[in-house]
């Protein structure tokens, strides 16, 4: 029995050490961000691409107040309620004392300046596909936004999901930087893929997740349960019951105006998405449409039972 106990103890110790190393935070290559200047105008477009104010503005903020990134919006999930933090340029309540590399590690590795894992409610799983220059431009633009001194609220997440180190194991299983769809030689589709799979983070809402929150890539953009309440987030593949009946021009028009081909009007959280997409160049909305039209037709994903 003593020998068996020693073996089991040894295996448990090896497992714990392995889990500790696998769950360690990973960081971007600093060389990718050295000597990168930023452009405010381009950064404003990246800000719109990423829809930063859709989550980080105060609840019910309107007009110019949507650029006050004081946080406070609540996002329900199967694991608890996540609350968007203050990411305004305030050095105490917000991220005003961050360097470019801090923003890069947050957006592309899901790691805070003090080495803690962020929850994937923050879509670093998509932002990891962004180009360093876009992040540098975004960094410069965000410095120009109004400050807010409102403290960030803690997430309402219970055990065991409140153990941040455990998120490193989740990342080991599900955090990938590869393109989801096969890259296209068509420049317009390639640009659309960059926007949809990266900065636009469309899959974070439109792709179903497994029991522990990983995106089901085999059901890419085929719709998902609405985490905030009743209803279902639409399938946006080329299935006949989804966007398959829309032309590329109709998709681009929807992203610019919020009007569907059936003269319906965008609603819910998609309204904020359209508000930001409307700020992009026509070529970017056309590129998003081209990428969506290139997707295979998948049936709408069904809610988990």
From TrEMBL:
GO terms for molecular function: kinase activity. PROSITE patterns: CYTC. It comes from the Bacteria. Residues 38-146, 187-296 form the Cytochrome c domain. Keywords: Heme, Iron, Kinase, Metal-binding, Signal, Transferase. Residues 1-30 form the signal peptide. This is Diacylglycerol kinase. The lineage of its organism: Bacteria, Pseudomonadati, Pseudomonadota, Alphaproteobacteria, Rhodobacterales. The gene is cycG.
